[in-house]
Write a structure and sequence with these properties.
386 residues, mainly alpha, 76% helix
């Protein structure tokens, strides 16, 4: 409750001016989904021009932009509803109904499309364990359930796990952004120095030496390695709301120095990842400060979750009938076709599924006298991927 009081006080004194409208957050989500589609389209429709393919491959950073925006959005929504009764319970209802319906629909769809046989993400094939873990959003905790049932579901596992702990974090830390940064540093060092070496050795034995690269990849995209990104996002939210201080820069400098030392001592190769994320965080903060607007990107951003889930299937289908040979023209046309079809699918799922789920969430969380002023459409637009 003290955390709630601190948040309410901060909101009264400072407001949420940089986040008063969700347009820039939607722009950032639009950029993120554009990047995510770019990397996957280029994998299926390579231009065979090194510079172009490299540029498209850099789209992987879109997921990390989603993480930053998600953390900021959760902080924004929490502070806007800081006077609700049972805020944590209502938060979980909103998040579950935002993410679960489409994701559960994607599970059988991709089992039909991709089958259950052995693959790069599931060396021993897909069985009941992988499906159950995926359906319960626990797939991020077991290597061969990550990305094996639903393509790209590693990020959804990270998002849902973050949602699980977010009410605890923000209630305990409130608007004290240095605590978020301190925890990010501590967890980063625990992952690099302790967890990752231990888990790499354990799972390399379990799956066999031939699958060591697969194990390393799943540990790299594990929740523990992604959580510092979310925590930095929370710190950015309160820094943008309340104003940056020199101490923020000092803590980030300590973060970089400690990560560099830990990386060199352990050979974890996570220092570069940290630096890329810090740069992305600065770009995200800059866009919010400048209140960047773009209607096309905002439209993509408002539909980014469904586009994220569906674009893998769209690429698979387009690849089956594609008439052009690989090359730059093929890549560019395939990207436009994929983006267009994924957007159309997203609009359909919004009307058929997501809108109904958001209406249900609003009814369930607004039954009490403290009826929230945030309508379902705004809540959905503010939610993004996850």
């Amino acid at each position: 409750m003290q955390g709630q009081a601190r948040l309410a006080a901060g909101r009264t004194e400072q407001g949420t001016a940089p986040f008063g409208r969700s347009h820039t957050l939607d722009v950032l989500r639009g950029l993120a989904i554009a990047g995510v589609m770019a990397i996957h389209v280029s994998q299926s429709f390579p231009s065979n021009i090194r510079a172009v393919d490299f540029a498209f491959m850099c789209g992987w950073t879109g997921v990390n932009v989603f993480y930053f925006v998600s953390a900021m959005t959760m902080c924004l929504m929490w502070t806007q509803r800081s006077e609700e009764t049972n805020p944590a319970g209502k938060f979980y209802i909103r998040r579950a109904l935002r993410i679960a319906p489409l994701f559960w629909l994607a599970i059988p769809a991709y089992l039909v499309i991709n089958g259950t046989g052995p693959s790069d993400n599931a060396p021993n094939g897909i069985g009941a364990l992988q499906v159950i873990l995926t359906a319960t959003f626990l797939h991020g905790f077991w290597p061969d359930s990550v990305n094996s049932v639903v393509p790209g579901d590693w990020s959804i596992a990270a998002e849902m796990t973050f949602y699980l702990i977010f009410p605890l974090l923000i209630t305990a830390f409130g608007s004290r952004r240095h605590l978020y940064l301190a925890l990010a540093i501590a967890l980063h060092l625990v992952n690099v120095c302790l967890f990752k070496p231990w888990a790499l050795a354990l799972f390399s034995v379990y799956y066999g030496p031939a699958h060591e690269a697969f194990v390393w990849t799943t540990l790299h995209i594990s929740f523990l390695n992604q959580l510092p990104v979310f925590l930095v996002g929370c710190a950015l939210f309160f820094s943008l709301r309340d104003g940056f201080a020199r101490s923020d820069a000092a803590i980030v400098a300590v973060f970089i120095a400690l990560s560099f030392v830990a990386d060199r001592a352990t050979g974890s190769h996570e220092f570069n990842y940290l630096m890329i994320n810090l740069v992305l965080g600065a770009l995200v903060a800059g866009c919010i400060r400048l209140a960047i607007r773009s209607r096309p990107l905002e439209a993509l951003g408002r539909n980014s979750y469904s586009m994220y889930l569906s674009h893998f299937a769209v690429i698979h289908g387009v690849r089956q009938v594609w008439p052009l040979a690989d090359g730059l023209v093929s890549l560019l046309i395939a990207y436009v076709v994929t983006a267009t079809l994924s957007y159309l699918v997203a609009r359909a799922t919004w009307h058929l599924i997501e809108r109904r789920a958001q209406d249900l969430a609003h009814r369930l969380t607004s039954a009490a006298p403290d009826r929230s002023s945030v309508r379902p459409t705004l809540a959905a637009n503010a939610a993004g991927l996850p």
